[in-house]
Amino acid sequence: MAHENFTQVIEFILTGVSERPDLQIPLFFVFLVIYGLTVTGNLSIITLTSVDSRLQTPMYFFLRHLAIINLGNSTVIAPKMLINFLVKKHTTSFYECATQLGMFLVFIVAEIFILAVMAYDRYVAICNPLLYMAVVSRRICFLLVSLTYLYSFSTAIVASSSVFSMSYCSSNVINHFYCDIVPLIALSCSDTSFPETVVFVSASTNLVFSIITVVASYLNIVLSILRIHSSEGRKRAFSTCASHMTAVSVFYGTLLFMYLQPQTNHSMGADKMASVFYTLVIPMLNPMIYSLRNKDVKAALKRFLISLCCSFKLM
Predict the structure, then answer these.
(1) Which of 247, 255, 237 is nearest to 292 (CA)?
(2) Residue 173: what are its φ and ψ, rounded to 5°?
(3) Secondary structure of 167-209 in the HEC alphabet?
(4) Among 99, 93, 204, 111, which Cα is nearest to 160's?
(5) Is the dihedral of CA 106, 16, 30, 28 positive or negative?
(6) pTM of the shown model
(7) How far apart are CA 107 and CA 66, in angstroms?
(8) Backbone φ, ψ for residue 123 (5° rounding)
(9) How far apart are CA 216 and CA 228, in angstroms?
């Protein structure tokens, strides 16, 4: 096949959430508030679980890393998105786009697996409480989190490298508000079978493994709770995992809605809304889910604020 002359793409143009000029400023303020709440909420969780002595348990160790991941995921997307609401030219360089996609994949894959790890942690805590500190020891916690980050970095490098190894030589307009895999593959003027296979195998493996872990953990948890005779005991056992069940349902529900749509009903507008939800809204909601329903976190926040007030008075 003869090679045709073409101009290699050196930058991409992001269409954004909406192309309507009259919506740019209102959307800027909406997403500024969302990002502000995300940063405040997740930094609060990170701070409280780091400094409060009563929150030094495996559950809060994993919650801290979920907050780090949520903050990272949102920060990879939101600042560039907010800038694009205020400028006319929504361009991003080739390497900036590659970096954004790589970092996004790191955090989204890490979130998938940290939620599975947290489900396993709740399973051990409720189904094997006497062995909890032995099974989920400090060493095991560090190992599980380290493997999560190592795997997510490896996946991101492989997937983003396969996407950006393709040639981009015709259109450079990405129909999205950030550099995502599907719209990038659609722009390529070279054979896309290899990156599509890599992405499909990776995404399928990650989702199936994590969902099986979560579902198996919660099936055992429900069976254990049903075997508890006292209603007070059942209520206490359920309350320890209710927040995580809510977070898992929202996150996986959004991903499944996005990736299991029939091709005939597939629309970029629905993809954008789903992407807004799991890149920006869920990172904002998670700190609220884990703090509003958690007496320990609310008590830790109260102690932290009292301590902060006392420190200012002594200055």
Answers:
(1) 247
(2) -95, 115
(3) CCCCCCEECCCCCCHHHHHHHCCCCCHHHHHHHHHHHHHHHHH
(4) 99
(5) positive
(6) 0.89
(7) 10
(8) -60, -50
(9) 19
Q: Which two structure tokens, joined as six digits, stand for 203?
A: 């995404």
- 13 vs 93: CA distance, rounded Å: 9
Single-letter amino acid, residue 179? C
Strand partners, 174: 14
Per-residue pLDDT tens digits of the chain, which is 315 residues long: 444 445 577 788 898 888 888 889 999 999 999 999 999 999 999 999 998 888 889 999 999 999 999 999 999 999 999 999 998 888 899 899 999 999 999 999 999 999 999 999 999 988 888 888 888 999 999 999 999 999 999 999 999 999 988 888 778 888 889 998 888 888 888 888 888 899 889 988 998 999 999 999 999 988 888 887 777 777 777 777 778 888 888 888 877 776 665 555 556 677 788 889 889 999 999 888 888 767 778 787 778 777 777 766 666
Instruction: For residues 158 and 154, give the distance between their C-alpha atoms in angstroms, rounded to a whole number.
Output: 6
Cβ count near 284 (within 10 Å): 20
Tokens describing residue 89: 């030219």
Sign of CA dihedral 10, 98, 175, 263: positive
